[in-house]
Amino acid sequence: MVSRVIPVDSFDFVLFGATGDLAKRKILPSLFHRFQIGQFGDNSRIIGASRSQMDRAGFQDHVRDALETYGGATDKEAIAGFLDLLDYTPVDAKGDGGWDVLKSMLREGEIRAFYLSVAPSLFGDIASRLKSTGCADDDSRIVVEKPFGHDLASAQALNTALRAHFREGQIYRIDHYLGKETVQNLMALRFANSLFEPLWNSSHIDHVQITVAETVSTEGRGGYYDQSGAMRDMVQNHLMQLLCLTAMEPPSKFSPNAVRNEKLKVIEALEPVQPENIVRGQYRESAAGGDSYRDHAGNPDSRTESYVAMKVEVSNWRWAGTPFYLRTGKCLRTRESEIAVFFRKPPHNIFGEDNELDANMLVIRLQPDEGIELRTTIKDPGPGGMRLTGANLDMTFADSLPDSGSQDAYERLIMDVIRGNQTLFMRGDEVEAAWAWADPIIHAWEESGQAPQQYDQGGSGPDDSLLLMHRDDRRWRPIEA
Ligand SMILES: NC(=O)C1=CN([C@@H]2O[C@H](COP(=O)(O)OP(=O)(O)OC[C@H]3O[C@@H](n4cnc5c(N)ncnc54)[C@H](OP(=O)(O)O)[C@@H]3O)[C@@H](O)[C@H]2O)C=CC1
Ligand SMILES: O=C1O[C@H](COP(=O)(O)O)[C@@H](O)[C@H](O)[C@H]1O
């Protein structure tokens, strides 16, 4: 099956922070891939805007380098075609310089998208100048990167700054996990099949495990990360979104507000997490003497967590009695993200003591090998009588849908901005609700002053995370290389 490309209308895409790290590693390569497969409307243009003094040719050189280095681009004709769409103007987010030139580059009647790939401290300045200079109109989209705030108060301040100039319907808050193919597939699995929904509740589901394990350290971004930690960097946003999509009620339709209303209800139903239900970890120096978290942070006393595991309760009719266990960490054994849904065991065993019954388990693998797997119990084939064994119904997308094409999460999300579809973007109230849940947890840590438990690099996290499960007579799925 070849994926169908549905072209978008032509647009003016203004990339603030066009000379920055995220632009060159993700945004520009993603735009190029969508251009290369023919998704752009005919007159589309991309305008880079940053502080650096550079002309159009200089920006084209910068972008060519980014596409070759980070986008795997080799097709000279496609690269030349893409570079043709580019323009550049220096713009100072905090001053008046460059805005009149930017305004003169924008065309009447085209979709305008302003992507703010800059520090959040510049969001308010840019939003305000976009409006006061007439660069943005009432249909323009404004896209903002994470982190969306550091806590509830700062997220509220960002929302206020953006909403002073743009309607909520124009604001696209990026959480790149929502652009991942299998994350969207979770909604298809739940709401496009009649098989699962009747079982999707605490009567049939014992518990859910959501894991985002990373092998990378914080090296190179230790300064930023030490102010953030796993809770702010991953749990409040990415894991929260996975939890919401797993736990939410069926929306009445697949529309931005219908989906986001249901996600918001999940966040609002979260119980406060008690300290005994959270484990924080920090990676120590490796056996080979490799740098520790504290070395990477440049802070020998750091109490910031690079790992967190927690038991979360969703307090509503559907989920009462079914805990969600979340965990994420750096420097773990392997890169592996998944949602594992553990069903309850069959209520009665007709096969006798020699055949212990296993529970069914549905695993939604987000990365690296995207797919869906259902663990079932079958008869062990052969003449050995009625002996039971486990068997997996495995749908690895690379095998079952080999020509479906893969796309980076940013590709999908940027095209949705042009289409004007906010379903996969966080609404302001959602982000604030997530911070309102996370803030007390973080404050309690800060007040206690307790250091996270040290854990080995290349393992599966701190020992206490095992106890979190053992206490409930459960086990984590192994993080396996
Ligand atoms: N890098 C990453 O992997 C990720 C980044 N993010 C987020 O994306 C955003 C950008 O991050 P990143 O690319 O790493 O940051 P960088 O520091 O690499 O780039 C910052 C960009 O902002 C521009 N800039 C700074 N000050 C001004 C100003 N006064 N006026 C106009 N432009 C200005 C810089 O322009 P110039 O260089 O010309 O001065 C540069 O292009 C941040 O919000 C970050 O949190 C989110 C997820 C991952
Ligand atoms: O937002 C972030 O995400 C990455 C993990 O993203 P993935 O797509 O590679 O799973 C994480 O490493 C980073 O710390 C965080 O800021």
UniProtKB/TrEMBL annotation:
Endoplasmic reticulum keyword on record: no
Residues annotated to bind NADP(+): 17-24, 51, 146
A GO term from the CC aspect: cytosol
Region ranges (Disordered): 449-481
Pfam families, per database record: G6PD_C, G6PD_N
Coiled-coil residue windows: none
Molecular function as annotated in GO: glucose-6-phosphate dehydrogenase activity; NADP binding
Positions with biased composition (Basic and acidic residues): 469-481
UniProt: substrate binding residues: 176, 180, 214, 233, 330
Domain Glucose-6-phosphate dehydrogenase C-terminal: 187-477
Keyword NADP: yes
Keywords: Carbohydrate metabolism, Glucose metabolism, NADP, Oxidoreductase
Active site: 238
GO biological process, one term: glucose metabolic process
Source species, domain of life: Bacteria
Matches recorded under Gene3D superfamilies: Dihydrodipicolinate Reductase, domain 2, NAD(P)-binding Rossmann-like Domain
EC number(s) given by UniProt: 1.1.1.49
Purpose: Catalyzes the oxidation of glucose 6-phosphate to 6-phosphogluconolactone.
UniProt-listed PANTHER family: GLUCOSE-6-PHOSPHATE 1-DEHYDROGENASE, GLUCOSE-6-PHOSPHATE 1-DEHYDROGENASE G6PD
Family (UniProt): Belongs to the glucose-6-phosphate dehydrogenase family.
Record protein name field: Glucose-6-phosphate 1-dehydrogenase
